[in-house]
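Exercise 7. Given the encoded structure of a 314-residue chain, write a plausible sequence.
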């Protein structure tokens, strides 16, 4: 072997080793990153696998009357998240069902007093609508042109509706659905809820954003974690008593998040709620969470689900 051939061989072997080394490092990083987020959802699923859904609708209207009918919730850890030190599972109890428009690709769901609002997605089908919370009937609906609408919240007589990738939030007069103004943002838009002084927003990542109610300015962010692992795909949100409740996209899980620390405190398993008629529709996932403050009950539904459940969570 002449010296030139020897040098070429040396460089060749060296280059191969370097490439293999880089591949190994990249694979290690990829594996650890992947397992970090995947394991969070796997771990939550394992925790929630035995969580109970009591799905025998209660038809007695008196059961929906007052907080006094649900003393267990009054005393439960849901009202005192600070008292908890580790995630717990919660129980969903179905009280009643109402019909839901199976054409609605539900992206946002919120009660404002006794009025129920929904945002639906898909390009060409996105809407802002008001539903009758007793019958599920669509009372009003406007088409939102040429965008993929996402999360929705109601603040002081105004509806704020996100878009998925367009970076635009629409602000409407809730009485007339007249567009008042638009805001822009740099991330994707998934879920939105009104947390009193601020808005909470999800963008499909583990990041939970806090935004100014009036200007929509990004104020701060926190990473959502479950037992220290990041939780991806934080989706539809509901702000209740200082906690942020969120469903995890493409899973039946609903989690309660401390918005100051990002820590998941409660995991609910809504697997048994999925209507039989939707099991072959991979897009028909749980995606609507609306809390009824008057009765401390919740309305839960999913994209293209034929049913809205009224439930208690304990
Ligand atoms: Ca909601």
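Solution.
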């Amino acid at each position: 072997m002449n010296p030139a051939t020897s040098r070429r061989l040396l460089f060749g072997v060296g280059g191969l080793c370097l490439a293999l080394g880089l591949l190994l490092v990249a694979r290690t990083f990829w594996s650890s990153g992947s397992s970090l987020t995947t394991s969070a959802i796997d771990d939550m699923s394992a925790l929630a696998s035995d969580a109970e859904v009591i799905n025998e609708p209660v038809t007695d209207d008196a059961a929906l009357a007052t907080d006094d009918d649900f003393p267990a919730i009054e005393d439960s850890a849901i009202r005192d998240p600070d008292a908890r030190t580790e995630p717990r599972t919660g129980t969903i109890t179905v009280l009643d069902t109402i019909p839901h428009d199976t054409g609605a690709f539900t992206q946002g769901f919120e009660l404002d007093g006794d009025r129920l609002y929904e945002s639906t997605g898909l390009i060409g089908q996105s809407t802002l609508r008001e539903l009758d919370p007793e019958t599920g009937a669509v009372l009003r609906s406007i088409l939102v042109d040429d965008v993929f609408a996402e999360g929705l919240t109601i603040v002081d007589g105004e509806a704020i509706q996100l878009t998925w990738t367009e970076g635009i939030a629409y602000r409407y007069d809730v009485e007339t659905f007249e567009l008042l103004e638009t805001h822009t943002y740099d991330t994707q838009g998934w879920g939105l809820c009104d947390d009193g002084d601020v808005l909470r927003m999800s963008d499909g990542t583990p990041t939970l954003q806090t935004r100014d109610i009036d200007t929509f300015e990004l104020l701060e962010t926190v990473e959502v974690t479950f037992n220290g692992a990041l939780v991806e795909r934080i989706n539809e949100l509901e702000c209740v008593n200082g906690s942020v409740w969120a469903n995890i996209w493409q899973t039946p899980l609903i989690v309660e998040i401390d918005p100051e620390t990002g820590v998941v405190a409660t995991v609910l398993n809504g697997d048994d709620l999925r209507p039989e008629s939707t099991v072959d529709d991979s897009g028909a996932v749980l995606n609507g969470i609306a809390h009824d403050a008057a009765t401390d009950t919740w309305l839960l539904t999913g994209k293209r689900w034929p049913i809205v459940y009224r439930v208690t969570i304990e």
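Remark. The helical segments are 3-48, 71-75. Students should compare their own answers with the one above.
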